[in-house]
Amino acid sequence: MTLIDDTASISVSRHCRRGAVTASLDNLNFLEPLHANHSVCVESFVSGAHHKSMEVFVKVIGENLTTGERYLAATCFTTFVAVSSDAEEFTVPRVVPETEEEKMVCAGYKKRRAHRLHERDDYKEFAAELSLELPWADEK
């Protein structure tokens, strides 16, 4: 997961040319196992942008180094938020997909964003109900 976050953050930095923080890691799907003797390639691109937030699509490709067979091991969407060290107002650049794959992934951005916003509201309600008590503390 570190490789996913690190690779996604590079795509974000190249896209907006400013600092950004990971806001969420969404829909991490493990599709095929990565074996110890296989190579791993992680590719990512910004698949949507809105004001200061950016969605990044990440794919993890495995390769059997003996046979040369490549396979899709995992996919993931992450969300980053651009930050500024001063009070400067800014908006991250819009995304211009180039390849057919980018166009296909970017086409679903608005729907995924709406779904994430709805889930975020539901999750805030859920999180408000979670205990912050120390689990080993004596109850009185």
Give a quick summary of the entry:
Residues 1-86 form the HotDog ACOT-type domain. The chain is an alpha+beta fold and 140 residues long. The chain has three helices and four strands.
Could you please describe the fold and organization of this structure?
The chain is 30% helix and 35% strand. The chain has 140 residues and is of the alpha+beta class. It has one domain: Thiol Ester Dehydrase, Chain A. The model has no long low-confidence stretch (mean pLDDT 92).
Indicate the topology:
Blueprint: H1 2-16, E1 20-30, E2 38-50, E3 53-64, E4 70-82, H2 100-106, H3 109-128
Antiparallel strand pairs: 1-4, 2-3, 3-4
How much of the sequence lies in strands comes to: 35-45%
Number of domains: 1
Q: What coarse outline follows from CA principal-axis ratios? A: globular
Can you give the mean pLDDT? 92
Radius of gyration: 18 Å
Helix content: 25-40%
SSE pattern, N- to C-terminal: HEEEEHH
How many β-strand stretches?
Answer: 4
CATH topology type: Thiol Ester Dehydrase, Chain A
Descriptive key words:
single chain; 140 residues; alpha+beta; Thiol Ester Dehydrase, Chain A; 3 helices; 30% helix
